[in-house]
Every structure is written in structure tokens, then in C-alpha cells.
Amino acid sequence: MTTAPPPESHEVSDLDGLDARATLAAATEAMTARRAAEVTEMRLAAHWATLHGEPVRQAVDELAGLVDPMTQPGGEGTPEVRDHCIAEFGMARRVHAATARALIADTLDLGHRLPATWRIVQALDCEPWVARRVAVMTRHLPADKVPLVDRAVAKAIGKVAPGKVFDLTAAKIIEADPEAHTRRRERARHERYVKLSKTDEHGFRHIIARVTAGDAVWFDALVDRVADILALEHGHNPAATSPRPALTRPLSVGGAQRRRPKLTGQGTPSRR
């Protein structure tokens, strides 16, 4: 096994000796070197996928797919790779297998589905992470609908802000497949959920809910109303910017059972 030569150092040895012009030139050189290193990683990921693009031949018949099954990290039209090689590539890069899979998938998508954008990336004329996000955004698209997005993104990426590129990508995805967009929008209209965040270091969690805009406004008004009632009954904390912190009392496990004020029109809570 051959050992790769040590990478060339791009460290600036004497920062104090740089004037303004030299500092800007060094910053540009460092940016170019960083982009080149990221593109090299992407090329290595694609090459690794090519090396493992054939199923294992040692096993026979029905066992062949169990030894090292084939998987398709990228979108439609990208080649399959052996599943176990993804974790091995991640170990070499000292990252999680999911991170390695994402790099392989994004690079395969760019090479096979977004070639015009990939040429811009390889020329170091844009940030690789922007192109990778475009690859993720378009992964669900059928292969025959991606070229429309690719042509538009290739004209914009590296020339406008990343947010503009993502907005353009989203718009072109809708244009490329309006029927799928309609289905996604219809599903989103009926999607409802309530989730809890992880517990933070102070023992608190966030309650996250997806509701309609009208329901959100109604609940916001309800929170204000209950907070006002609790402030009247228990006093308002002057250190707080609003009476809303008082609302956490009935939301606590014990408080929810002990204190449930009934909202009345007189501005004071009534007990059951």
C-alpha cells in the first residue's frame, strides 16, 4: 500500500509582515486552497464509489446480496455502490458513516445529474457546500427533470448569494415537476404534529407544533390571556419583559394538575 505524500502547507508564516494588499491576496489564496481541498475530497468520494460499484462475486445465489448489499446513495440515474464501503470511507475520513454517505451521494448527484454545476465546482468558482445543498434539494426529482434546474443553477452559482441560489433551485424544481409540487403542497396542508425538543442543560424543553396560521394566532392570543390572568393572581415578575413566563407554572407536571384556571370574561380566574 502506497502512502500519500504529506499535504502542502498553506500556512502564512509571517502575518505581521503582510500589508493590506498582501493580506487580501493571502486570504484569496487560502480560500482557493480550501475549495480545492474540498473538491479533492469529493473526487475521492466519487472514485471510491466507482471502485465499489460492482456487487460482491464471492457469494453465490441468494447469499450474494447479504454479504455486501448494493445501495444507491444518490438520486435517480446515479450508480449503486456496495453498502459496507460507505462506512469504510467514513472511517478513513474520521467521520460518521452518514456523513460519508452524504458526501458520496452529493458528489454522484453532481457528476451524473448536475454536470454543468459540477463543472463550476471543479473550476473552484463557487463554494462546494452550496452545490452540495442543491444536489440534496434536487435528489427527489426524476433524472429527466433535473437538467432544467442544472442549467439555471450553473448560471447563478458563484455569482449571487447562496440564499438566492437556493431560492432559484426551489423555483426551478417547481417548474420542472409542477405535479409533484402540487402533491407535496397538498400533503403539507394536512400535516400536523407536536414535538418536544431535547432537554437542555437547565432542564427545559421546547414544545414545537405545526398548525395553520390561524390556529397559531389563536393560540398566541390564548397564551397572552392566560399569562395576564396568572399575573393578576400571582403577581408579575418585574425582571421579565412580559407576563408570559408565568404561563410556565400550569405547564409544569405538578402545576398542570393543581392549577387550571378557567378563563372568564371578568379578567380573573375562577376555580373549579
Task: List the strand order in the largest sheet.
Answer: 1-2
Q: Which percent range describes the beta-strand content?
A: under 5%
Q: Write down the domain tally.
A: 2
What is the percent of helical residues? Answer: 55-70%
Using the alpha-carbon principal axes, give the shape: extended
Major sheet size, sense and barrel closure: 2 strands, antiparallel
Terminal Cα separation, in Å?
Answer: 79 Å
Rg over alpha carbons: 27 Å
| Secondary-structure class | mainly alpha
Mean pLDDT: 83
How is the secondary structure organized here?
Elements: H1 20-51, H2 64-67, E1 70-71, E2 81-82, H3 83-93, H4 97-112, H5 115-122, H6 128-137, H7 146-156, H8 162-176, H9 178-190, E3 193-196, E4 207-210, H10 213-234, H11 248-251, H12 253-258
Key phrases:
4% strand; two-stranded antiparallel sheet; 12 helices; 2 domains; 272 residues; 56% helix; mainly alpha
